[in-house]
Fold:
Amino acid sequence: MSVLRTLAGQTAIYGLSSIVARFLNFLLTPLYTSKGVFAPEEFGIITSLYAWAAFVNVVLTFGMETTFFRFAHRKELDPKRAYATAFFAVGGLSFFFTLVCALLPDAIAGGIRYPEHGQLVLMLAVALGLDAMTALPMARLRNEGRPWRFVSVNLLNVGVTIGLSLYFLAYAKPHDPGIGVGHVFLINLIASAVKFLVLVPQWPWIAAFDRTLLRPMLGFAAPLAIAGLAGMVNETADRAVLKYLLPAGLADAQIGIYGACYKLAVLITLFIQAFRMGAEPFFFSHAKEKDSAATFARIMNVFVAVCMSAFLLVMLFLDLFKWFIPNPAYHEGLRVVPILMLANVFLGIYYNQSVWYKLTDRTKAGSSISIAGALITLVCLFALIPSMGYMGAAWATFICYASMAAISYVWGQKHYPIPYNVSRLLLYMAGAVFLWWGCEQVPLEGVAKYAMRTPLLLGYVAVAWRMERTALHP
Structure:
């Protein structure tokens, strides 16, 4: 079996449950954004608080998943020691965070401009602490090649979320609307608690914790954590910053519209997430292969072709996809979708390229690139949002990710040269954008519109497949 097929298998298995979880959020969008459930301003509260949660999650896990993968593959180290050291480091930090939030929920809520929602902050904080405690056990399952156990745990979490969402939002909320958006945070808390309890048997013995190993692990992890935190600035700061840069009476509704339409880029983000789950262990295990650089380049070709096919699928049929947001009050934000989808393609390219600094132990380079991206994001957000609203946030995301991909490519070629076929990658991207733009210029409606667009989509996929079939079957 070829290495590309091996990667495809790992991506399919380890990424399956993650895809389902993210796809669940997409499928719940019609429920969340329906009339009578959450108006744009309510959905804005949910979107904003979970944007802050993304930052906290990076801090609590502190890059220890990747650090565990790296140290567990060092011949001179016992993987059990590496696992226990990483686990208890994350556990201690999570406990401290949860304790602080339990003591000061109202103060924290006021600090992020939601002073009336201290209870929501508390529920979210506890859920985040529980989630962080499950990160290392899940990473261990991946490292030990136990995909079905990994999948079953994540699917259990998904099942609990589905069941509770249907109960609380479709049944309980209409009968007790006073709780409002609190239903969402209660659902998250219960689902996180269930996952936490299921993984308790995976906890290591405290005796395996190695203080002498902790320092080098933290040294390896710190740049990754900084890079992850900067990455969250790039990914979610837009939804947090909008609260501060838009008029107070309009901010939550605008955040809600932007957050709902952001979800229509889910097909690309789902694939990127699944790819990362399988690719990171794959890159480490195949780094010493003779033709590893050529393999990584072929993977990039296939990755971009798949992403741009997803872009075409959504954009050519956006008038159908938009009804996943059934309340027309949200539809004014659809114009951000192509910008955000292309932005996420560049993000995926950057994730592919990150192999160079991880395999050469230059994790500080990754943090430097992410920090540069964060600075670009913040400058663009503050420059564009006051005049463009959430469209400025979308363009800031695009500019940031495109810049990060370019910086990483130039830097990486100096330290870990990979023969990426840049012209082919640009051809895939420009070709998809041109096909979409061209279709938008043709004034067709109904059956005639779809009769033209469907063959174009299939033709694009067929051409990309033909170009890459050698890479898929070397």
Notes: The two ends are 10 Å apart (CA to CA).
